[in-house]
Amino acid sequence: MRLSLLLLLLLLPGPPPTPGMEDAAFPHLGESSQPPPRACPLRCSCPRADTVDCNGLDLQVFPDNITRAAQHLSLQNNQLQELPYNELSRLSSLRTLNLHNNLISSEGLPDEAFESLTQLQHIYVAHNKLSVAPQFLPRSLRVADLAANQVTEIFPLTFGEKPALRSVYLHNNQLSNAGLPPDAFHGSEAVVILSLSSNRLSYLPPSLPPSLERLHLQNNLISKVPRGALSRQTHLRELYLQHNQLTDSGLDATTFSKLHHLEYLDLSHNRLASVPAGLPRTLAVLHLGRNRIRRVEAARLRGARGLRYLLLQHNQLGATGLPAGALRPLRGLHTLHLYGNGLDRVPLALPRRLRALVLPHNHVTTLGARDLAGTPGLAELNLAYNRLVSARVHRRAFRPLRALRSLDLAGNLLTRLPGGLPGGLHTLRLQRNQLRALEPEPLAGLDQLRELSLAHNRLRVGDIGPGTWHELQALQVLDLSHNELSFVPPDLPEALEELHLQGNRIGHVGPEAFLGTPRLRALFLRANRLHMTSIAPDAFLGLLHLSVVDTAGNPEQVLVRLPPTTPRQPRAGSPR
Asked: Which residues does UniProt assign to the signal peptide (predicted)?
């Protein structure tokens, strides 16, 4: 009888039956073909049987109807204030619990909240309102993130006795040394990352995990590293101690000597007056910027023979703080930063293999013929914003630097281009000097130069000698902005793609202005003296790649006519 009724329904005219109607009418017919729907909390999503995602729903109450089979529960970006023990204790299969960015306080987190979560591996409670850490977290834990709370205290079993624990994040809290028990990590011998930055620690905590590879302690109040505090951390590779209150008396010769795998050490923004002693030979990067260092002694660097990057910017070295040969032990040094130290000359006897020398904002006035001869491998030299004058730059000063690719002489007092520039240069920066003339000779042979900046000088078109650009066959970017040019300079390099002429006195652009630059893509003419018809109708004829023409800031809106083959895109200062 039932089968006859079903056949009759299927044969009747009209819309087909609703999917599942047969099962609704006859439950026993559909039991084996369709599984029952999975339970999922209202408004949440459950993309898999073991995953519940309630992210960003402005929830104020812990959701009910979470399946006991859930292994991954996401509740971040809500407004939860508490975790009910009865609801949480049901979820014994949880492996990941994400509570990031809620309003959970310590009062809303019962001490026994995590006791039944014996399989929990990842817990994220960052950006909440915890004042103390949970007293107990599961032994199975691998990652714990309690950053950006108001935590003042952790307990022995918060992170202790966790043999699988790998990463702990406690930065941006209010922890003092009194809030860290001496056995905070007892029994957790696998922790490789510990972040305690931006707290209120006054000395480096003792009894840190010996397995550590990365330790963040920046932005604290640390004035001392107690003797032996780092003696067990022999696997440490990265140590961040910047923005503290360390002085020479807060360190000793053994502080770093046992760190046989240390590669990165940041001590910048402290109060050190000298380079620390006992640096390990594995060290590759040493950041000592913004301290009070007055002198660098070779003896302090002798142990760090593997150093590749030494950053000493914004110290107080002055004219005598870096004596000849002080850096000689660092035979493999690649980069030396000496920004803002009051140096009056390029340091002598630098490591021969040095590749980058960064010396801006010092008081260097002179470059002799042999000052750079000891570093023939330099690829980058930055002498910007010193006090160099043309008369004191020897014509052979740069000649030994055959590997030089980038030279920055911006912000000096040069009145002419230096001679003897290496033919392999790719970038030459001479902006903000006092250049009044350009001649072909200093630029001769620079057939690999790609970028030349001459902005903010005193150049006029009549002072640019014939043939000045002739050998710059690879030049792609030329910046002549903020000079005294009255029209577009002639005979520009054919390879040019970007031309900056803003802030000059240009009042007319003729039809022949860009005949020799067919690859031009961007042209900047803003803040000149152009009027509506100042640009000849066929000035851009043949510039098939031109995509930017900036003529804003002129006395009148400039009419820009582009050839039909050029892509029609809105351009600043051109009609739309």
From this structure: 1-20
Query: What digits encode the pLDDT tens for the residues 21-34?
Result: 333 332 333 444 44
Average pLDDT, integer, range 386-409: 97
Q: Which residue has the tokens 């003042």?
A: 152
Closest by Cα among 142, 129, 126 to 76: 126
How many other C-beta atoms lie within 10 A of the C-beta of residue 307?
26
Using DSSP's 3-state secondary structure scheme, residue 52 falls into strand
Nearest CA to 62 among 104, 115, 121? 104
Residue 180 backbone phi and psi in degrees, to 5: -110, 110
Phi, psi of 86 (to 5 degrees): -60, -40
CA atoms within a 13 Å half-sphere pointing along the CA-CB vector of 212: 26
Share of the chain above pLDDT 90, in %: 86
Tokens of 421: 């520039």
Cβ(248)–Cβ(274) below 8 Å? yes
Maximum distance among all Cα pairs of the chain, rounded to whole angstroms: 113
Residue 4 has pLDDT above 70, yes or no: no
Long-range contacts of 399-403 (CB under 8 A, 24+ apart): 400/372, 400/373, 400/376, 401/372, 401/375, 401/376, 402/376, 403/355, 403/376, 403/377, 403/378, 403/379
Contacts of 561 (CB under 8 A, 6+ apart): 535, 537, 538, 539, 540
Work out whether strand 264-266 and strand 451-453 pair parallel, antiparallel, or are unpaired: unpaired
Q: Which pLDDT score, from 0 to 100, does residue 183 have?
A: 94
Contact 432, 480 (CB under 8 A): no
Q: What is the DSSP string of 344-403?
A: SSPPSS--TT--EEE--SS----B-TTTTTT-TT-SEEE--SS--BGGGB-TTSSTT-TT
| AA letter at 153 | E
Contact 385, 361 (CB under 8 A): yes
pLDDT class for 38, splitting at 50, 70, 90? low
pTM across the whole model: 0.88
Structure tokens at 170: 């406690």
Rounded distance between C-alpha atoms, residue 254 and residue 125, angstroms: 37
Partners of 336 in the beta sheet? 310, 357
Q: Specify the pLDDT at position 565.
A: 57
| Pairing, β 51-53 against β 45-48 | antiparallel
Cβ distance 30 to 23 under 8 Å? yes
The pLDDT confidence band at residue 111, using thresholds 50, 70 and 90, is confident
